[in-house]
Amino acid sequence: MSAVLVVNSGSSSIKYQLVEMSDESVLASGLIERIGESSGHSRHTTPSGEWEKDVPVPDHDAGFRVMIDAFEAHGPSFDEHPLGAVGHRVVHGGKRFFEATVVDHLVEINIEDLSDLAPLHNPANLSGIRAARKTFPDVPQVAVFDTAFHQTLPPAAYTYAIDKSLADANRVRRYGFHGTSYKYVSGATAEYLGRPVDELKLIVLHLGNGASACAIDGGRSVETSMGMTPLEGLVMGTRSGDIDPAVLFHLHRKTDASFSELDGLLNKRSGLLGLAGRSDMRDVIAGADSGEAEAQLAFDVYTHRIRGYVGEYLAQLGSVDAIVFTAGVGENSAPVRAAALAGLAGLGIEVDPARNEERSRQARTISPEGARVAVLVVPTDEELEIARQSLAAVSA
Ligand SMILES: Nc1ncnc2c1ncn2[C@@H]1O[C@H](COP(=O)(O)OP(=O)(O)O)[C@@H](O)[C@H]1O
Ligand SMILES: CC(=O)OP(=O)(O)O
Ligand SMILES: [Mg+2]
Questions:
Q1: Residue 37 pLDDT grade (very low, low, confident, very high; cuts 50, 70, 90)
Q2: Is 40 assigned a ligand-binding role in the annotation?
Q3: What is the pLDDT of residues 117-163, one digit of tens each?
Q4: Structure ipTM over 0.95, yes or no
Q5: Which pLDDT score, from 0 to 100, does residue 91 have?
Q6: What is the DSSP letter of 168?
Q7: CA end-to-end span of the chain, whole Å?
Q8: Closest C-alpha residue for ligand 2 atom 7
Q9: What backbone torsions phi and psi does residue 17 show, to the nearest 5 degrees?
Q10: At what angle do helices 259-268 and 246-255 cross, to 10 degrees?
Q11: Is 209 annotated as a binding residue?
């Protein structure tokens, strides 16, 4: 059996994991941050230790080199764990990619061509693919798309109500993201509940730095909150989520802000950061607990928005077996979970306060015994899902 190196290249970071596929054990994981800034930072973790250092990382090529150096210095060695594939997270696969795909020249051109739909993400994902190919020329590179799981969205869910021919000509529609996480979590939820995934109606809330919601009917995504880009939907760390598009016209006229400034405003300086000056939910909650009105409002806007989506998805699905919290905030923040589902007892949706406070890395139930709707916390593992899909793609 072989190992898979999973690479998640963001605009300013590379996260990686080396997974031994025979038992799905993690042999190493790490993070290179602040790529392109004056000083970068790297962390490499294996079962025998953790190493951190500050290093200059001018670009993704250099970042990749830092990762390879860490493997050479601290192990494990790729000679002992030969790579069967390098699996890359690619955020935007547009309409073209339904599943994980081995990257050849044509696939690479397609990913590049989709960059105008995901200018923050796809170029970084491509740099990762190119750097990995230079380092491992004989190992297949596999692209695993955030959008692929949402190819099942019905037209009524993915169509924006604007001029149809203009939208079609410019690929303007909803695509959805975090699909790799939704695929993993829906499978893990079915396993935890001991029921086949095709019998389940789920609402999954992926609340990380980026946050989105997904209605999953029988293992198929039928509605999701992110749209053409990962900006639509829930309130996030630095992204606004849903907003009246006329706000942009108004701000453009009133302040002369350019489109790229407005893009930066909604993607990088909004959400929790815009409302409370901090993008990390832990800091927002600490602020709210110490009586800061802005932090309390940020928390309230964040959880109010989630509650609205839960109601909408319940209506779209007709009924729901489980509501599932996942990702950094969803897995760790009891106050967010409690507030997001507060007041829904009439719909059979309740959170048990003691169960909600329990800490564990395992899937668990936080609704009271006998509740009509199961409320669960199910940790996501996008890296493992990418590794599994990458191996399947090269074995196909
Ligand atoms: N105990 C906690 N309470 C609230 N939020 C938390 C907690 N632990 C982590 N988080 C949040 O999780 C976020 C990161 O989630 P994660 O899914 O790792 O994000 P990403 O993969 O998008 O970088 C952080 O921004 C932080 O706000
Ligand atoms: C698509 C997206 O929003 O990704 P992330 O949560 O990693 O920012
Ligand atoms: Mg994430």
A1: confident
A2: no
A3: 988 789 999 999 999 999 999 999 999 999 999 999 999 999 999 99
A4: yes
A5: 95
A6: H
A7: 15
A8: 210
A9: -150, 135
A10: 120
A11: yes
Query: 32, 302, 326, 329: which to mutate for ligand 1, most atoms within 8 A of CB?
Result: 329
Tokens 């079609």 belong to residue: 168
How many degrees, rounded to 5, is the angle at CA 328 between CA 45 and CA 219? 105
The Å distance, Cα 209 to ligand 1 centre, comes to 6
Q: Which residues line ligand 2 (CB under 6 A)?
A: 91, 146, 177-178, 208-210, 230
- Amino acid at site 36: G
Token code pair at residue 271? 């959400």
**What element of type H or E holds 108?**
helix 105-113
List the domains of the chain with CATH numbers: 3-145 (3.30.420.40), 196-382 (3.30.420.40)
Over the stretch 292-347, which tens digit does the pLDDT of each residue have? Answer: 999 999 999 999 999 999 999 999 999 999 999 999 999 999 999 999 999 999 99
* Nearest ligand (C-alpha, residue 271): 1
Nearest to 380 by CA among 145, 144, 186, 148: 186
